[in-house]
Specification:
It is built from 8 helices and 13 strands. It folds into 2 domains: 5-133, Rossmann fold; 141-259, 2-Layer Sandwich (Dihydrodipicolinate Reductase, domain 2), CATH 3.30.360. By secondary structure, the protein is an alpha/beta fold. The strands form 3 sheets. A 6-stranded parallel β-sheet has the order 3-2-1-4-5-6, with helices on both faces. A 5-stranded mixed β-sheet has the order 8-9-7-10-11.
């Protein structure tokens, strides 16, 4: 039986075409999670990668490989989701905001560049699209975003990760990660400095900063702690709203211990909220 016009139109609107920028650990985990949810109305239609890249085994058969931002509009994406690098935000951000209704940025450390952030926001306003920064490894940012409607006095964000999660970063110049026996502070300073110095490990401090009092007033402590096995975030805020603090302990992503699996889980929930009948 043919559906009534209104019902058919509603069904069509309920599907969202997704272009993924980046085919690393987060992108693969996201695709796997979506594939496990057959009721999801998110359709992965394209993956943007470097010209030397090849099709990955986990890509759906119908996915189109993009290597140039000028080819993005032809895929007619509803959502473009960056999960690659700060450079990818620079290259794909403006084209994405012009042709899709949302551009989701996982490499939030790119937004420590005020000029880039201003350009992306200007493009979004002109195109009627949205620049979206997902909550990533953090699960309680709605409270901070709401609290920021009134004056905030302080926001602090402490990240604790096992020593091995800090390998390949500036932490190796601060401490001997092989022999650390007690919790060791690697960094104390502003969120802007933390995200710039530790983009792979401290990306989440940009999220708490944008939700609260900004990159320069948010105080960050980064800790290598052999006593923890998970990636731990502790966020506290005080202001006219009152005070709160929360702690979240995330399992590392199997393919990348620097990143929490919660980052991919949050992305799936964000995408499904676009089309779901119930949004919580």
């Amino acid at each position: 039986m043919k559906q009534p016009a209104s019902e058919s139109a509603g069904t069509e609107r309920s599907r969202s075409r997704l272009c993924l920028v980046g085919a690393g650990a987060i992108g693969q985990r996201l695709a796997e999670l979506l594939a496990q949810r057959p009721s999801s109305a998110i359709e992965l239609v394209a993956v943007a990668e470097r010209p030397v890249s090849s099709v990955k085994p986990w890509w759906p058969a119908s996915v189109r490989l993009l290597t140039d931002p000028s080819d993005l509009a032809a895929t007619r994406p509803d959502i473009v989701l960056e999960a690659a690098s700060r450079q990818a935000v620079i290259e794909w951000g403006e084209p994405a905001l012009r042709c899709a209704r949302k551009f989701i940025v996982c490499s939030a450390s790119a937004l420590t560049d005020d000029s880039l952030l201003g350009t992306l926001l200007e493009t979004a306003r002109a195109a009627g699209s949205q620049l979206v920064v997902p909550h990533g490894a953090l699960g309680g940012l709605q409270a901070l975003s709401a609290a920021s409607l009134l004056p905030l006095d302080t926001v602090t964000h402490t990240i604790r990760k096992p020593p091995e999660a800090w390998r390949g970063t500036m932490a190796e110049t601060v401490a001997d990660l092989e022999t650390i026996a007690i919790a060791t502070v690697l960094f104390d300073g502003s969120a802007r400095e933390a995200a710039s110095s530790y983009p792979a490990n401290a990306n989440a401090v940009v999220l708490s900063s944008l939700a609260g009092i900004g990159l320069d007033r948010t105080l960050v402590t980064l800790v290598a702690d052999p006593a923890v096995s998970r990636n731990v975030h502790e966020v506290a805020a005080r202001g006219a709203f009152g005070a709160f603090s929360f702690r979240i302990e995330n399992e590392p992503m199997p393919a990348n211990p620097k990143t929490s699996d919660m980052a991919a889980l949050n992305l799936v929930r964000l995408l499904e909220s676009e089309v779901g009948a119930l949004v919580v």
